[in-house]
Amino acid sequence: MITNNFKCSLCGHNRHRLVSSRLRDGSQKSKVYCCFTCGHVQLYPQPNIEKEKAYYDLNQQDKSVGKKIYFSALKKNNQFDTDRHIAFVSKFCRSKQSKILDVGAGYGFFIDGMFRRGYHKVVGVEISQERRMIGKRNISAPLFDADILSEIPKGGPFDVITMFHVLEHTRNPVDFLLRSKALLKKGGVLICEVPNVEELLLRTCKAYNDFYWIRAHLHYFSAITLKECLKKAGYKRGCVYFEQRYGLENLFHWLRVGKPQIENPAFTIASEYADVENYYKKQLSVRGVSDALIAIGYT
Ligand SMILES: [Zn+2]
Questions:
Q1: Which one of 31, 60, 99, 232 is at 20 to 30 Å from 168 when CA atoms are compared?
Q2: C-alpha 176 – ligand 1 centre gap (Å)
Q3: Residue range 111-121: average pLDDT?
Q4: What is the CA angle 241-244-246, rounded to 5?
């Protein structure tokens, strides 16, 4: 299929196939396509820049799924991911003096967790006015308003730059990664987590597939296309890991009920079943069909 003006933002070619003709929460004009040449999955056409700014300032993504915006409840729901990110990123920090920038820091759960563990040179940037305001009232770590494409965040250059579920929201992922690279020290490391478009649930649960495609995600990565983005942005020794975030309870909820667990998502199961859960998560990662990918790139 060739749609007028479609151009793959990863390889520049225009032949593509339709992946989804409807979005959970967006205009009928935008659809999800997969590039025939490189396999990159993307939204086309992208929402215009003014609409994007209002969407993020007003925190429409959280509101569109009916989340209640209370800091303590959101923090509790995110605690599993926050702890996982802190444990993972700490391994890449040479000392507590490491300069860390979290891009798209949201309400600041991760930067605050790092700050409380003694990483006092951690900073976050967040373009959403509402998330920033709520975060600033509740955390100790510094959280700034900066779009890294046009501004240089305070405190750099950085030893480590993190972005958790951010790259899929950017208009041009390669440009975004290039810009991040310019903010890193020589020998610095980028840690970037995104959803995995090849996750198993997407193929096995129609309700999940109907829920999955949203106007906020302009790109959907596989391990191959994410690695290609790192390569095009000039990162050395770029590698991608498979990571399963959601646990068995969440799987069964989707398969049986066909709905997301919005208020109380299950990342883990009762400890008595931990071995089964660990096996499930590990198998999805080994097969490359986990729900998330983590890319590591060095300058
Ligand atoms: Zn392509």
A1: 99
A2: 17
A3: 98
A4: 155
> Is 90 exceeded by the pLDDT of residue 226?
yes
The span from the CA of 18 to the CA of 14, in Å, is 12
- 103 CA → ligand 1 middle, Å: 26
Instruction: Tell me the mean pLDDT in the region 114-119.
Output: 98
In this prediction, residue 50 carries a pLDDT of: 76
Could you tell me what percent of the chain has a pLDDT over 90? 78
Tell me how far the alpha carbon of residue 6 lies from the centroid of ligand 1, in angstroms: 10
3: three-class secondary structure by DSSP: coil
Which class in CATH covers the domain with range 49-298?
alpha beta
**Ligand 1 center to 218 CA (angstroms):** 14
Angle at the Cα of 24 from the Cα atoms of 148 and 254, rounded to 5 degrees? 105
How far apart are the CA of 61 and the centre of ligand 1, in A? Answer: 27
> Ligand 1 centroid vs 7 CA: distance in angstroms?
8
Poorest-confidence range of 20-24, 106-110, 114-118, 294-298? Answer: 20-24
- Is-contact 233 181, C-beta < 8 A? yes
Separation of 107 CA from ligand 1 center, angstroms? 33
CA of 36 to the centre of ligand 1 (A): 7
Task: Please tell me the distance between residue 208's alpha carbon and the centre of ligand 1 in angstroms.
Answer: 25
Q: Give the Å distances, CA to CA, from 66 to 60, 112, 113, 249.
A: 10, 25, 26, 21
Gap between the Cα atoms of 154 and 87, Å rounded: 24
Task: Tell how far the Cα of 297 is from the centroid of ligand 1, in angstroms.
Answer: 21
Instruction: Locate the domains of the chain by residue range.
Output: 49-298
Query: Mean pLDDT across the chain, nearest whole number?
Result: 92
Residue 61 has pLDDT above 90, yes or no: no
pLDDT on residue 125: 97
Total-model pTM: 0.93
The Å distance, Cα 231 to ligand 1 centre, comes to 14
- 161 Cα: distance to centroid of ligand 1 (angstroms): 26
